[in-house]
Description:
Blueprint: H1 13-30, H2 32-49, H3 59-101, E1 105-108, E2 112-113, E3 120-127, E4 131-139, E5 145-154, E6 157-164, E7 174-181, E8 187-189, E9 192-202, E10 211-214, E11 217-220, E12 224-227
Antiparallel strand pairs: 1-9, 1-12, 2-7, 3-6, 3-9, 4-5, 4-7, 7-8, 9-10, 10-11
Helix pairs in contact: 2-3
Amino acid sequence: MADINGLNNATSVYEKINQANEASSTAKSKSQSETDSDMFMKLMIAQLKNQDPTSPADTADFMQQISNMSSVESINNLNTTMSDMSSALLTSQAALQASSMVGQTAFVKTDKAVLDSRGIIEGVYTLPESAKGVRVSIYDSVGGVVDTWEAKSVAAGDHNFGWSVGNRDPQSEYKIVVEATDSEGVYKPTESYIGHRVDSVTLGQNGIGMKVNTGAGTVNMSDIKQIG
Length: 228
């Protein structure tokens, strides 16, 4: 990072505080089990010092306490190990899923479209209920209508569609608008997804919050209808 008026030439107070906090947090995490053991031993020694000399505690009781402490410590170590394994498995699974997605076509919730290598645009639209008519319109980058077509009596559910540039001059980008008739027969926009090639995938923390990088930009997994 570039210096601004020489302020970054020395470690700032905030950086020192952050470093101290990180060191403290790491040390605390590493010595937690040791701290618990030390506390247990101090309590047991205090119990021995303050017991009634005329009626000393049974040795078997102390052995039982030590056994219980060992069991608790073992369970804590097992929980830590299982947590680490779970995080590693989640990351590995997400990485495997991500690698299999690259190069595939993801149908993204967007109206932006580009031609694939065949000169075709593919998409999917969703109807919550059947419609008397569905209209798909293709616009160029300046808002001019390139093509449009309609389908009659379309059932509820997902429907795939495709459009070929044909003999037209190809554009760098298109806009796709899908509309369906409502109960009064008026065309209104409906949910649609446009196919885009997956260029790469960005993994989140432990595989959570994964982002997919496509020709439509970076999108969340929740904005993808299907991949294939």
